[in-house]
Each structure stands twice: as C-alpha cells, then as structure tokens.
Amino acid sequence: MVYNKIDINNSGFEELYKLPLDKDKIIDIKRYIIENNEIHTIYDLQNVKSLTAEDIHFLKDYIVINHKKESLTRSNLSYKIDQWLSNEGGSEGISEF
C-alpha cells in the first residue's frame, strides 16, 4: 500500500490523528514535540511513555522526521523577547510579531 508519510514534527493534531494510534498516544507524541522542540530520530519516540516498542516499529512506515520548520519556537521567542527588552533593541522588531 502506498500512502503519504506524515511529517511528525510539522503536523498538527488533525494530521497526526491519521496515524494508526489511539488519541491518547498521539496527544503524548505532540506533547513530547512541544516540550522538546522536535523529534530528532525515531528513537526519540522511546521517551514517549505511552508508546510501546511495537508502536514505534509500526510508526516507521507512517512517519517522516524532518526538522521543525522555522517558527516562533520557545527558544526563538525567548531570543526575540530578550532582544526587545535589551537596551540595544528595545523598540526594534516589535512589528515583527
């Protein structure tokens, strides 16, 4: 069977719900991605407590792991806020938000 793999780091819940897992496991995957910024390898999924080794092996056929697309991630957002509050750029970049 040929199907499009889901980009696990750059997909929202709607796309992730297409994975053959129950909703609780998908929520745990998304929570892990949010807390850790992204999944780097399939082995990072071992850190999602609700996933079994069988789940992870099964997911290999359904997902692709790309780096997270540049957005206002926690570290990027923190950098922007620090920049805005500093003396050197206190009023610069506020319109970027």
Proportion of beta-strand residues: under 5%
Radius of gyration: 17 Å
Structural class based on helices, strands and sheet pairing: mainly alpha
State the major sheet: 2 strands, parallel
Q: Helix tally?
A: 4
Intertermini distance? 43 Å
The strand line-up of the biggest sheet is 1-2
As an assembly, this protein is: single chain
Present the secondary structure layout.
Layout: E1 6-7, H1 13-16, H2 23-36, H3 53-59, E2 63-64, H4 74-85
What does this structure look like?
The chain is mostly helical and 97 residues long. Helix content is 38%, strand content 4%. It has helices at residues 13-16, 23-36, 53-59, 74-85; strands at 6-7, 63-64. The longest helix is centred in the N-terminal third of the chain and has 14 residues, at 23-36.
Protein traits:
97 residues; mainly alpha; two-stranded parallel sheet; 4 helices; 4% strand
Short summary:
With 97 residues, the protein is mainly α.
